[in-house]
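Figure 3 (text version): structure tokens given as input.
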């Protein structure tokens, strides 16, 4: 029986199953116990069945579910099965990647989602600058800038990321700034910059 704690434990798991929803399950290599991996965590590392991953685990607080899967992965190293070693390398690759295929153009929403799943804290302006470094907000009637904002809000509205909102004054009806993060538990307070 486990003593319940929210302090993360580092472990290596091997992925044993991935559902169509991208929820994954793994087995701890050190003790054979089952691990539940939420879809946002599994997608961040593009998990594959049969591969080993270094993860941070917390104990499952749901007593009934903990009987089957006593651990929940809250973080996975997204670069251990990747050609990239850092988020910066992956972002540089994404910026330089060809944006079209012969059949279909990659949507702004897809690029936003992919970048969000790499981690970090983003607001509309920082995401726009990362995805469109050679474009100004006024180019093309703000179409891309607005698409970035819509994609961030869509992810939050569909429980794919957290949103932090700042109001400078209590009388405001609109926030002064908003930040988005898929993995807020891994974010340091310094990452939230005042862009307003």
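Below: residues designed for each position.
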């Amino acid at each position: 029986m486990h003593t319940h704690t929210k302090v993360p434990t580092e472990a290596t798991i091997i992925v044993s199953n991935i559902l169509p929803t991208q929820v994954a399950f793994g087995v701890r290599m050190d003790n054979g116990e089952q691990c539940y991996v939420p879809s946002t965590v599994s997608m961040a590392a593009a998990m594959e069945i049969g591969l080993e991953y270094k993860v941070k685990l917390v104990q499952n607080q749901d007593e009934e579910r903990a009987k089957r899967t006593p651990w929940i992965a809250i973080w996975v190293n997204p670069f251990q099965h990747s050609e990239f070693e850092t988020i910066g390398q992956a972002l540089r690759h994404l910026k330089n990647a060809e944006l079209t295929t012969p059949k279909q153009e990659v949507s702004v929403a897809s690029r936003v989602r992919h970048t969000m799943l790499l981690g970090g804290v983003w607001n509309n302006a920082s995401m726009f600058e990362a995805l469109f470094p050679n474009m100004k907000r006024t180019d093309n009637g703000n179409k891309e800038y607005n698409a970035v904002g819509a994609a961030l809000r869509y992810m939050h509205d569909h429980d794919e990321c957290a949103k932090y909102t700042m109001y400078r004054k209590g009388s405001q009806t609109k926030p002064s700034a908003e930040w988005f993060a898929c993995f807020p538990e891994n974010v340091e307070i310094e990452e939230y910059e005042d862009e307003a």
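The radius of gyration is 19 Å.
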